[in-house]
Amino acid sequence: MAGHYDGPLDMPIELIYPFDDLPDGSTIIDIGGGNGQNVIRLVKSHPQLVAIVQDHVSVISNAENMVKESYGEEIVGRITWEAHDYYAQQPRKGADIYLLSHVLMDNNDE
Predict the structure, then answer these.
(1) Alpha carbons 39 and 52: distance in angstroms, whole number
(2) What pTM does this model have?
(3) Is residue 34 part of a domain?
(4) For 11-70, what is each residue's pLDDT tens digit?
(5) What's the domain count of the chain?
(6) Is residue 31 within 8 Å of 86, Cβ to Cβ?
(7) CB of 40 closer than 8 Å to CB of 75
C-alpha cells in the first residue's frame, strides 16, 4: 500500500509520500481531518494541491473559522470543509489521495 507507515507517530507525512510528484489540481481528502493541520501543511508546501477536510459538523465549523482567521486566502481558498461521518459511505469519488491519520486508533477490530 503506497504511503503506509508503521513508524513513529510524529513522522511528517511529507516524508512518506511523494506529494511533489502529484500534478496540478490533485485532490487530497483528509477523512477525520480535525482542524486541517495535515492539509494546511501540505497545501502550503505543495501549491498544486487542493484539499477537502471531512469531520463531524461541530469540528468542521470551528476548524474552518480558525483557519480563516489564521491563514491567508491563498491557503483558505484551496481547502474545502465538509461534515462527514467516516463510518458512512464516502461521498467523494475520484480523489487522488484519501488520508486517514490518527482516526482509527480508538476503534476495535470489529
Answers:
(1) 8
(2) 0.83
(3) yes
(4) 678 888 899 999 999 999 999 999 999 999 999 999 999 999 999 998 988 888 888 888
(5) 1
(6) yes
(7) yes
